[in-house]
């Protein structure tokens, strides 16, 4: 008898039929002799609908009240799922994030989990019930205000809960059969990976692969918790996210694990920055103080005649307005000339642990992009990743070119059961 935490995304519980299908899968796991805790997202596009409604009422909704509104989506799905399970003859108890003991920071809309104290969940499991937990939400430990974790927060809720419960595995159910070498909506011949390491999955998630959220993978790596990414629409084996590839895996052929892309970023260029000690630190500390995440950074060589340089960096489009506003507020202090904002960019990334020991990966990558007619605007690398910024309109063409150049195409067409990617 094991303890399994399962997470179901919005596409899996999009309607009544989906909820009943998920309930049947949960009950089957319970009948197999396991204790089961479930984390569930809001149904379908419920969250998007609530955001749109809020913006119709107020152009800039208050963060606290917006969080209060958005948590309603998961409350609806958790209660309905508990009812569906009850209809199958099994007891299920639903819990909000705060009732489940998910303690967070105070940043509304993008709070981080500090701790999980799952006393009520443990009690429910020990009573033989199935515990249903609302994903994406928690409670601030100081103010007791409801908070949300940002996009993909249900993944993080599930892994954090699994770690707190010392579960055997965290199963993340989505609308594709696992982690693929590229988004199968763009590259239908993308191949499903049997396994991927935490290190590789972190890079893929940070680079735009939407099947798992970055913070959830960070949590899993910290607690060495296996994640099984699979589809709620089939019974096929999915992709295991683990510390190391299983013994016998042919690592020689796994030079590249996948090609990821991201259309959610924008680029800010600070023009004419005085090239003196402490200026860059002041700029990025100002941005960090507002909890805005910076991705890629490029600083040009200072012009000898003027002592000025340009600094470019990428960040989420959703934070673009706030970032430009706070930078303009310190323009007089810093002394830069102007700001340029560009939200028509896309990030294309190549990820694979095998590139450590295979020279020529960078050359092949850049050559295939050049042949496809893509102009590279920024470059960033890690030991197992190469990322470039290109025009958003060229991004999908670049994904296909890189996927083919590194022989990642499979023979069969990947199945996308729902189309949302969650």
CATH superfamily of the domain at 3-175: Acetylglutamate kinase-like
Average pLDDT, all residues: 91
CATH-level-2 architecture of the domain at 3-175: 3-Layer(aba) Sandwich
Terminal Cα separation, in Å?
29 Å
* Structural class computed from helices and strand pairing: alpha/beta
Shape descriptor: globular
Oligomer: single chain
The CATH class of the domain at 3-175 is Alpha Beta
Strand order of the largest sheet: 3-6-2-1-9-11-12-10
What is the helix fraction of residues, given as a range?
Answer: 25-40%
Low-confidence stretches: none
Total count of strands: 20
Number of separate helices? 12
Largest sheet: 8 strands, mixed
Radius of gyration: 23 Å
Strand content: 15-25%
What do we call the CATH topology of the domain at 3-175? Carbamate kinase
């Amino acid at each position: 008898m094991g303890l399994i935490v399962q997470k179901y995304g919005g596409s899996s519980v999009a309607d009544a039929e989906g909820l009943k299908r998920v309930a049947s899968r949960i009950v089957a796991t319970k009948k197999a002799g396991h204790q089961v805790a479930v984390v569930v997202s809001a149904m379908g596009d419920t969250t998007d609908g609530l955001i749109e409604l809020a913006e119709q009422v107020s152009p800039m909704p208050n963060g606290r009240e917006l969080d209060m509104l958005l948590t309603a989506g998961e409350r609806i799905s958790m209660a309905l799922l508990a009812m569906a399970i009850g209809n199958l003859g099994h007891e299920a108890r639903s819990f909000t994030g705060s009732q489940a003991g998910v303690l967070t920071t105070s940043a509304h809309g993008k709070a981080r989990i500090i701790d999980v104290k799952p006393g009520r969940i443990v009690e429910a499991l020990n009573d033989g019930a199935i515990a249903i937990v609302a994903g994406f939400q928690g409670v601030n430990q100081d103010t007791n205000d409801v908070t949300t974790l940002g996009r993909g927060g249900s993944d993080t809720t599930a892994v954090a809960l699994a770690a707190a419960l010392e579960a055997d595995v965290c199963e993340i159910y989505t609308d594709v059969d696992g982690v693929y070498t590229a988004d199968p909506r763009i590259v239908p011949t993308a191949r499903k990976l049997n396994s991927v390491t935490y290190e590789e999955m972190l890079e893929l998630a940070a680079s735009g692969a939407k099947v798992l959220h970055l913070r959830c993978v960070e949590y899993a790596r910290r607690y060495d918790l296996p994640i099984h990414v699979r589809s709620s629409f089939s019974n096929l084996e999915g992709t295991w996210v683990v510390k190391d590839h299983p013994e016998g895996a042919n690592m020689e052929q796994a030079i590249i694990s996948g090609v990821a892309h991201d259309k959610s970023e924008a680029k800010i260029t600070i023009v004419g920055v005085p090239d003196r000690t402490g200026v860059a630190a002041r700029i990025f500390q100002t941005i960090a103080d507002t909890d805005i995440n910076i991705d890629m950074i490029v600083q040009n060589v200072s012009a000898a005649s003027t002592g000025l340089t340009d600094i470019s960096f990428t960040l989420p489009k959703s934070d673009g307005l706030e970032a430009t506003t706070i930078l303009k507020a310190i323009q007089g202090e810093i002394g830069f000339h102007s700001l340029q904002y560009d939200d028509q960019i896309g990030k294309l990334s190549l990820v694979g642990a095998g590139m450590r020991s295979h020279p020529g990966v960078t050359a092949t990558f850049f050559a295939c992009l050049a042949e496809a007619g893509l102009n590279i605007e920024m470059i960033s690398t890690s030991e197992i990743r190469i990322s470039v910024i290109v025009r958003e309109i060229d991004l999908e063409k670049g994904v296909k070119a890189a996927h083919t150049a590194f022989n990642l195409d499979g023979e069969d067409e990947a199945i996308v059961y729902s189309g949302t990617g969650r």
